[in-house]
Amino acid sequence: MSEIVLHHCHQARSVRSLWLLYELDVPFTLVMHDFGKELRSEAYLAKHPLGRVPCLEIDGRVLFETGAITEYLCEKFESSLGRKAGDPERMEWLQWLHYAETVAVHGASLTQQHIVIFEDKDRSPMVMKLEARRLEKALEVLDAQLQGRKYLLSDFSAVDVSVGYSVFVAQHFVGLGQFKALSGWMARLRDRGAFAKALLSNGKTSIYQREFYGILN
Ligand SMILES: N[C@@H](CCC(=O)N[C@@H](CS)C(=O)NCC(=O)O)C(=O)O
Question: Is the CB–ligand 1 distance for residue 35 below 6 Å?
Answer without folding.
Answer: yes
